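Why does residue order matter? Because the sequence determines the fold. Keep that principle in mind as you read this record.
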Amino acid sequence: MEHDLTFDSATGTVLKFTKPDRSAYAVDFELGTPRMGRATPLDYLDRLALQNEIFADTLRFVGIASNTNGKRIVTRQNTVKGRPARWEETVILMEDLGFTKMRHNHGIGYEDSYAFFRDDYAVFDMRPANVFVTEEGDVVPVDCIPVKLPAGKHEFFAK
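Structure:
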C-alpha cells in the first residue's frame, strides 16, 4: 500500500518507490496518543533511519523520481529470501532486542499487526507480511513503522 517495488537483478536489491506525491506513513503523538498519518518526506526518511538503527538494516535513499503522476521517494533495500515470520518469531526477535509487546497496536498499521516499545522507541505494523525468516533462521523486519517516542510516552505504553 505504501510502495511500488522493482527488483534490481544486477544488485540483488529492491527499489522501493513511494506512491506518487506521498511519503508513505508515520506515527505522531500530536493528540497525546499514537496516530498514523501521511508522512512528510523528512518523517519518512527519519523512519528509514530508525529502521536501519533498530534492525541493523541497510535501507538507502536513492533519490527522487518524477513523472506525470508526481514525485516519488526512491530507496534501496536488500532482498530478503525466506518465509513470513510466525507471530511468536516476531515476538522473540523484539524481546531479544529489548522491546515489550504492547497490549494493542493503537490502530496503527494493519488491524492484526503487533506493536512494541523500548526506552525511547516504538515499532508498529509488525506482521507476517512485514517480517521474514531467512533460510539461515534470521528474523528480518522489512517494512514496519518505527518511531522515536516523545518525552514521557514510554510510561504511556508501560501502563
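Helices lie at 41-55, 87-96, 153-158.
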